[in-house]
């Protein structure tokens, strides 16, 4: 016999006969005879221990799954009875089973979907179809590669464990219908059942727990978020192949990719709860892509600045070279002029000197200019600390000179290799961590 109902069906065994009908109700004579002396306000085995209630579930469909509200919605389908008596439930005692959910309501239909069967051995089968909303605390740190474990709890509201005992009729097979479910973003990986007790101030109450695991399908997010963000990163690398002199082109690519990536990041967060405690896997990947795109824009700023500095250095070196040439020409001209002046003075002195007195003349070496005496050597100055400071400055300048970029175009050449390799390495680490750890 196949049952189609949700969320719960339970059966209990009673040794009491059934009676007490409203005036005017018409039932078959056999049922009327069975209900003679029966009180629906007293549970079965009232004076002989707790009554046992077995439950089973048939999940008909899961309509929506919302990460914002962190809930799951269920919808059940009741089966049709054949060759059994189906009648009103009001004359019978039924367990006050409740679901610990925010909302649990009967479906919006013309008549109530309830079924009751009485078997010859005294077992009463009661079936009910309801629509319930189940709350589930989600861990979204690995979203969208997450796996959520949620529970559906069924417990007695007014009867404690001394009055009612719950159990699953067929263990883990008591829940059916999950194998045929078709969900948009999830797949049901596993489910199992357990028996527990709900502890309140008024006592301990029986509780049945249904656990199920849902794994999110990542294909949608790969096509919707991961592929576009990766392509934006690749698009930002196009600027490495554009000349440094094409300022509008490179700036346009950098700014456009940054703004597009920002819009993509904002769109990815609209479907998720605004919880600061969650740093989701998709946020990490979008942050990585944004960093690479912004880094490509900064790379052009650095390369362009180095190109301008390199041009200024060339101009400065050319100016110094021209200044050195001018100084060298001025020195040559000054040397020739001084040589001619000294030669003329020597000839004039030789003509004015008397012939008989060559021995009384003393030759005094002339100064390089021919008029000034040779200065005496000055004593060495005490500048030891100044020389040490200058040596230190030279070492620092030499170290900075080693870091200087000889050719700014080499920055783009290095970026064409380092950016793709770094992005591939980061992707390998990202997917390995979030898929296997």
From TrEMBL:
GO terms for molecular function: chloride channel activity; extracellular ligand-gated monoatomic ion channel activity; transmembrane signaling receptor activity. Residues 352-381 are annotated as: Disordered. Residues 31-217 form the Neurotransmitter-gated ion-channel ligand-binding domain. Keywords: Cell membrane, Chloride, Chloride channel, Ion channel, Ion transport, Membrane, Signal, Transmembrane, Transmembrane helix, Transport. GO terms for cellular component: chloride channel complex; plasma membrane. The chain crosses the membrane at residues 218-244, 251-272, 284-308, 417-436. Residues 225-431 form the Neurotransmitter-gated ion-channel transmembrane domain. InterPro entries: GABAA/Glycine_rcpt, Neur_chan_lig-bd, Neur_chan_lig-bd_sf, Neur_channel, Neuro-gated_channel_TM_sf, Neuro_actylchol_rec, Neurotrans-gated_channel_TM, Neurotransmitter_ion_chnl_CS. Residues 1-19 form the signal peptide. It is found in: Cell membrane; Membrane. It is a multi-pass membrane protein. Belongs to the ligand-gated ion channel (TC 1.A.9) family. NCBIfam families: LIC (TIGR00860). This is Gamma-aminobutyric acid (GABA) A receptor, pi. It comes from Gasterosteus aculeatus aculeatus (three-spined stickleback). The lineage of its organism: Eukaryota, Metazoa, Chordata, Craniata, Vertebrata.
């Amino acid at each position: 016999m196949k049952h189609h109902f949700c969320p719960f069906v339970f059966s209990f065994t009673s040794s009491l006969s059934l009676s007490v009908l409203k005036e005017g109700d018409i039932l078959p004579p056999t049922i009327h005879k069975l209900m003679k002396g029966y009180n629906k306000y007293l549970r079965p085995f009232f004076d002989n221990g707790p009554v046992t209630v077995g439950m089973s579930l048939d999940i008909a469909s899961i309509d929506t799954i919302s990460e914002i509200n962190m809930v799951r919605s269920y919808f059940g389908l009741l089966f049709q009875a054949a060759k059994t008596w189906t009648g009103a439930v009001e004359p019978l005692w039924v367990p006050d089973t409740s679901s610990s959910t925010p909302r649990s309501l009967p479906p919006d239909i013309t008549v109530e979907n309830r079924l009751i069967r009485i078997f010859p051995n005294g077992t009463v089968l009661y079936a009910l179809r309801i629509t319930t909303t189940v709350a589930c605390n989600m861990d979204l740190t690995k979203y969208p590669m997450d796996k959520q474990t949620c529970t559906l709890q069924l417990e007695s509201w007014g009867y404690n464990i001394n009055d009612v005992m719950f159990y699953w009729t067929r263990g883990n097979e008591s829940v059916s219908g999950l194998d045929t479910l078709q969900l948009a973003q999830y797949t049901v990986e596993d489910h199992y059942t357990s028996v527990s007790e709900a502890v309140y101030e008024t006592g301990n109450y029986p509780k049945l727990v249904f656990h199920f695991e849902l794994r999110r399908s990542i294909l949608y997010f790969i096509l919707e978020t991961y592929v576009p963000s990766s392509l934006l990163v690749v698009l930002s690398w196009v600027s490495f192949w554009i000349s440094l002199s094409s300022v509008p082109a490179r700036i346009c690519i950098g700014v456009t990719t940054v703004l597009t990536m920002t819009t993509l990041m904002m769109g990815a967060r609209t479907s998720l709860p605004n919880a600061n405690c969650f740093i989701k896997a998709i946020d990490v990947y979008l942050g990585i892509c944004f960093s690479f795109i912004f880094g490509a824009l900064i790379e052009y700023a650095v390369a362009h600045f180095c190109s301008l500095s390199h041009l200024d250095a060339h101009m400065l070196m050319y100016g110094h070279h021209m200044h050195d040439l001018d100084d060298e020409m001025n020195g040559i001209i000054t040397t020739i002029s001084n040589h001619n002046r000294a030669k003329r003075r020597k000839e004039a002195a030789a003509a004015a000197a008397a012939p008989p007195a060559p021995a009384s003349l003393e030759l005094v070496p002339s100064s390089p200019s021919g008029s000034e005496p040779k200065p005496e050597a000055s004593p060495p100055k005490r500048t030891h600390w100044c020389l040490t400071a200058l040596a230190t400055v030279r070492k620092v300048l030499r170290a900075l000179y080693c870091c200087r970029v000889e050719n700014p175009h080499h920055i783009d050449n290095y970026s064409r290799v380092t950016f793709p390799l770094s992005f591939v390495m980061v992707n390998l680490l990202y997917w390995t961590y979030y898929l296997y750890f």
